């Protein structure tokens, strides 16, 4: 751990960013395969494949919401722990504060798991119907979600605790935590779906088992001597003040993820009203492809964040400025590249998810609109991660709210009344462009302030 800390503060920045970001990118890309692989296999089930795919797509807002709670504790606590580790070079009590943050994050994750499991098992059907399910698709949605929610504890711990491994500079270990589970999911999916003939239920079983495997790996590491931040009974003491700090910073990534759930609900209900099941299926495919575009960028910014947080805590502001400047350049270039690739071969990418000719044609025709602002999205992601890394909760919360709550949801509700179902797809590029420009302005203000900070 001492060597990891030294690297965060002194190693050549280019090679260090590559060392930390590459495993994080790989981990994020592989992690998204959990849901995407499910959709690819489900979309090729012989009987009623398009209905099954749409049914699982209806579950997406709930799955996203479950992940949002894990980010609330994990993405909120890990930067704070990293800042404390940076202070530990000149403050002997900093490490104990960092471990207290970890302990309170564990308590929050377990509490969230219990609460979410109970709520969604009891109110599953009415929630799914409210989220855009139809009588034709809800049997598939219920089959998938009932099993998935039984494994909520594994979702919370695997997603919520992994950032604490990355915060210590162990990017490779954090990557393996996700790779192990994702590879297991890829192997188990066809076995449970086709060999055991369980359909969407099999996809859910495979996902839960895979997440359980990841959780075991992560917990074992965080209890071992290799980890500077260790889970032990001594740190599992709830402290309202610590939980409040985690909550203040975790609210931003929570909003970013939870509002994704709200957006899916607004999209699905609007699409069902103005277009029908086939439009919900098309949106399911395009949201999956959108994840493929932005997840590598998110992985990169997540990997770089510990460098920013650690050096900010250590007072090395020159290194902080250089890191965040490079981060935004690279994120922007990556988003431009993603837009070019995805829009150059739309049919190829859509065909991965379904063989239904009508669904393919519809999705391909709508992609130029829905993906119209992907090229600038990297700017907002880098800015958002900078605010979180520096512990600037208020700014990060505003940026999180701006794109989705202030812009996207109202646009998705209003535009269809003037443009029909296509208005829902137009809301995405309008909101993304506006929020990216605003985020960049706030980023410049933040960057400038670091020059004067002592």
From TrEMBL:
Compartments, as annotated in UniProt: Cell membrane
Swiss-Prot/TrEMBL keywords: Antibiotic resistance, Cell membrane, Membrane, Transmembrane, Transmembrane helix, Transport
Bilayer topology: Multi-pass membrane protein
CDD domains with a match to the protein in the record: MATE_MepA_like
GO CC annotation terms, alphabetical: plasma membrane
Domain of life: Bacteria
InterPro entries cross-referenced by the UniProt entry: MATE_fam, MATE_MepA-like, MATE_MepA_subfamily, MdtK-like
One GO BP: response to antibiotic
Major site of localization recorded for this protein: membrane
Membrane-spanning residues: 20-37, 49-80, 101-124, 144-164, 176-196, 202-223, 327-345, 357-377, 397-418, 430-450
GO function term, MF aspect, one: antiporter activity
Sequence similarity: Belongs to the multi antimicrobial extrusion (MATE) (TC 2.A.66.1) family. MepA subfamily.
PANTHER family: MULTIDRUG EXPORT PROTEIN MEPA, SPORULATION PROTEIN YKVU
Protein name, UniProt field: Multidrug export protein MepA
Organism of provenance: Treponema peruense
